[in-house]
Amino acid sequence: MTKHRLVVLGGGESGVGAALLGQKKGYDVFVSDKGKIKDNYKEVLIHNEIEWEEEQHTESKILNADIVMKSPGIPDKAPLVKQIRDKGVLVVSEIEFASKFTTATIVGITGSNGKTTTATLTHHLLKQELEVGLAGNIGDSFAKQVLEKNHPNYVLEISSFQLDDIIGFKPKIAVLTNITPDHLDRYDYQFENYIISKFRIAENQTKEDYLIYDADDEAIVNHLKKHPVQSTLLPFSLVKTIENGACLDKENIKITIDNNQIIMPTAKLALEGKHNIKNAMAASTVAHLLKIRKQTIRESLENFQGVEHRLEHVVKINKVQYINDSKATNVNATYYALESMDAPTVWIVGGVDKGNNYEELFSFVNEKVKAVICLGVDNEKLIDTFGNMVDVIVETQYMSEAVKIAYKIAEAGDNVLLSPACASFDLFENYEDRGRQFKNAVRNL
Questions:
Q1: For residue 81, what are the CA distances in angstroms to 75, 77, 106, 224?
Q2: Is the Cα torsion angle 61, 67, 69, 74 positive or negative in sign?
Q3: Of 8, 36, 137, 433, most Cβ neighbours within 10 A?
Q4: What is the pLDDT of residues 390-433, one digit of tens each?
Q5: What CATH number is attached to the domain comprising 115?
Q6: Could you list the residue ranges that cross the membrane (predicted)?
Q7: Using CA atoms, how far apart are residues 324 and 411, in angstroms rounded to an integer?
């Protein structure tokens, strides 16, 4: 009996996790990365005697695959992926591959913004009473956890790229935090294609499964009208009255599921801002469905610390608050950040623009932003857009310099906010690297 051949494209966290799981399940495994594989991942592959290559794709070793797991970073348009598909070989994402080897209850969380906070918060609420793993775009890969931990429950943060390559993946509970234009460069600049991609999280669900979603989000509501799903719907809203789901009742979050109700004051939430009330609604609805005690949910919401690089208060220097929101890689995320600013703000913005439309930020910029510091290789669009709106606009390509300029401009009582609204790859390794450089530069002032 010949072994099935699993080819893994991309030797990062998800790729190496899938390779290990595949090997354990009896596949003949080959890992191929067009770039360099990081040393820590190389060591794992060598230690487990898994064949690999880097800085090339050897077609003869790839096109003979029975199944290909591709990294979410590789677009479908890549010639190699086209070749693989033309041969009729199955291409899947890591969450699709790993889900075949677990019977766990899966909570899948997607959305343009808020998914990391919601996933981390949901995990925080559940882990008090359940054995639960946190994976997907966070921490150790899902495949690796299925192999090593075999948790009975998982909270997965899932990107649209990962959903593009699912076939049978079906979370018991799906959460859709919101949908705003993002990554349109991967979706032929069609917002509709991106919406369809996000909704794939529910495509295999039945009425025994649940879809929790933002009922204030037009893109979601309109899509559901035109393309109903099988799932039991549990919406959340800040403005509507919701019979089954979550809504605001004066200053309280009210969650109702089959007449079973839980009420929590918003004043006690650890995280600030309207968008975090929504994140709390989504996470609490999941916890309520999975029978976490009401008292535990309330306490967990009060002591949750938040996520690094997401509106993270770094330090106050000379009465100026420095805030790291490096995780804001699109305009909508920066919208939430500027919305929550309650003082004059020096705003550090820029990077790789994914076809951004900055219009929704104009009212906040006019009202709250006193200076704009453009931090990117190409800042022309930012200068054209915001040049006339603020008194001071500067450009730089170094984080240390951006922070020094901000320090000079900011006065007592101001905020300095890094909320780039762009991807980080022009000057930094990733948004974490960008955020850490910001924090280091601030601490070195």
A1: 8, 7, 28, 31
A2: positive
A3: 8
A4: 999 999 999 999 999 999 999 999 999 999 999 998 999 999 99
A5: 3.40.1190.10
A6: none
A7: 18
Structure tokens at 339: 């919305």
Residue pLDDT, tens place only, 240-266: 999 999 999 988 999 999 889 999 999
Q: What is the pTM of this model?
A: 0.82
Helix (H) or strand (E) holding 173: strand 173-176
129 in the same domain as 67: no
Domain that holds residue 15: 5-92
Task: Say what the alpha-carbon torsion angle 435, 436, 441, 445 is, to the nearest 10 degrees.
Answer: 100
- Angstrom distance (rounded) from CA 59 to CA 83: 9
Q: C-alpha angle 277/282/288, rounded to 5°?
A: 115
Task: Tell me the average pLDDT of the chain.
Answer: 93
pLDDT at residue 188 tops 90: no
When divided into structural domains, the chain yields a total of: 3
Q: Which two tokens stand for residue 381?
A: 């669009």
Query: Which amino acid is residue 190, in one-letter code?
Result: Q
- In the numeric block, which tokens belong to residue 331? 């305009």
Strand order in the sheet with 105-110: 132-136, 153-157, 105-110, 173-176, 210-214, 232-236, 245-249, 252-257, 260-265
Sign of CA dihedral 75, 194, 178, 382: positive
Q: Per the annotation, where are the binding residues for ATP?
A: 111-117
CA angle in degrees (0–180, nearest 5) for 309-106-290? 95
> Average of pLDDT values for 158-165?
91
Q: What is the pLDDT of residue 191?
A: 84
Mark the binding-site residues, compressed into ranges: 111-117
Q: Would you say residue 1 has pLDDT above 70?
A: no
Euclidean distance between CA atoms 250 and 265, whole angstroms? 9
Shared domain for 44 and 139, answered yes or no, is no
CATH number of domain containing 330 = 3.90.190.20
Radius of gyration of the chain from its Cα atoms, rounded to whole angstroms = 22
